Amino acid sequence: MKKGLIGLGIFLIVLLSACSNSSTENNNQADTGTEATMEHGNMEHSGSEELPEGLKEAANPTFSLESQAVINADHMPGMKGATATIVGAYDTTVYAVSYTPTTGGEPVKNHKWVIQEDLENAGDTPFKQGETVVLAADHMPGMKGATATIDFAQSTTIYMVDYVPTTGGDPVKNHKWVTADELTAP
Question: What does UniProt give as the signal peptide span (predicted)?
Answer without folding.
Answer: 1-22
